[in-house]
Amino acid sequence: MSNIVTTRREGDIAVITLDNPPVNALSFRLREPLYAALETLGADDGVKAIVIACAGRTFVAGADITEFGTENALKRPNLPNLCSLLEDMPKPVVAAIHGTAFGGGLELALACHFRVAVPSAKLGLPEVKLGLLPGSGGTARLPRIVGAEKALKMIVSGNPIGAAEAAKSGLVDAVVDGDLGEDAVAFAKAKLAEHAPLVRVRDRDEKLAATRANTEGFEGLIGEVTRKARGLEAPVMAAAAVRNAVEMDFDAALKAERDAFIHLVQGDQSRAQRHLFFAEREAAKVAGVGKDVQPRALKRAGVIGAGTMGGGIAMSLANGGVPVTILE
Question: Does 107 participate in catalysis according to the annotation?
Answer without folding.
Answer: yes
